[in-house]
Amino acid sequence: MTSRKRLTPEESRSSALQAARALLIETGPQSVTLKAVAGRIGRTHANLLHHFGSASGLQKALAEHLAQTVCETIKDAVHASRAGLGTAREVVDLAFDAFDREGAGALTSWMLLTGNEDALQPIVETIHNLVDEIAPEEAEHECDDQRVHRDTLSLVLLALGDALMGSVLSKSLGLPRDAARSRAQQMLEASLAKYAEQV
Q1: Measured between alpha carbons, how far is 79 from 94 in angstroms, rounded to an integer?
Q2: How far apart are CA 58 and CA 187, in angstroms?
Q3: Residue 139 Cα distances to 83, 101, 131, 136, 194, angstroms
Q4: What is the pTM of this model?
């Protein structure tokens, strides 16, 4: 009889979040349950209950995990762009992919539909922290210190909307599938150009 490897609490939690993320991407937010995640990682329902408290707690932890992962990636892209190593389109693609391919859009809508809005707080806080971290680099030159906040709001709302209904809407309007990404890119490039004129 083989015994399961004993994991530290951090390893167990991390393993569960990776499995929850895989389930989210593969089959949608409704499949992110304690039972499904436990089955995927070979643990018990009680074990996950101990770590997350409830399915709602698991979803909240998943939202926080996704937000941190996504924001780190976007932050790296922004810094690369400022150093001349990346483009506005790369930042846009990272944000859109996070909400579409990585499942953040589906998870967000699921939480809203199931009345679990407080679980979105980690996403909001992480994005806000990202914006505040990026903004200070511009503060001494910035005539309008809310520009980065407005750009972030627009980018996130465009990415979320595109993840939820971009395919259907762009098709019905006779636009290319990446029309929303192109709009976001134009918006970001215009904002960066305006900032460059001010410094």
Answers
A1: 13
A2: 35
A3: 17, 33, 12, 5, 15
A4: 0.75
Q: Rounded to an integer, what distance in angstroms lies between the CA atom of residue 58 and that of residue 55? A: 5
Assigned token pair, 165? 């209904």
What would the 3-class secondary structure string for 61-129 be? HHHHHHHHHHHHHHHHHHHHHHCCCCCHHHHHHHHHHHHCCCCHHHHHHHHHHCCCHHHHHHHHHHHHH
CA–CA dist 70, 48 (Å, integer): 24
Is the pLDDT at 49 greater than 80? The verdict is yes
Give exposure, 47-78, as e/b (b: 16+ Cβ within 10 Å): bbeebbeebebbbbbbbbbbbebbbebbbebb
Cα 23 from chain centre: 16
Q: How confident is the model at residue 182 (pLDDT cuts 50, 70, 90)?
A: very high
From CA 129, how far away is CA 125, in angstroms rounded? 6
Of 2-6, 122-126, 135-139, give the range with the top mean pLDDT.
Answer: 122-126
Residue of 181 and 94 predicted with greater confidence: 181
Q: For residue 8, what are the CA distances in angstroms to 16, 96, 153, 159?
A: 12, 34, 38, 36
As a whole number of angstroms, the distance between CA 63 and CA 80 comes to: 26
Q: Cα–chain-centroid distance for residue 41?
A: 23
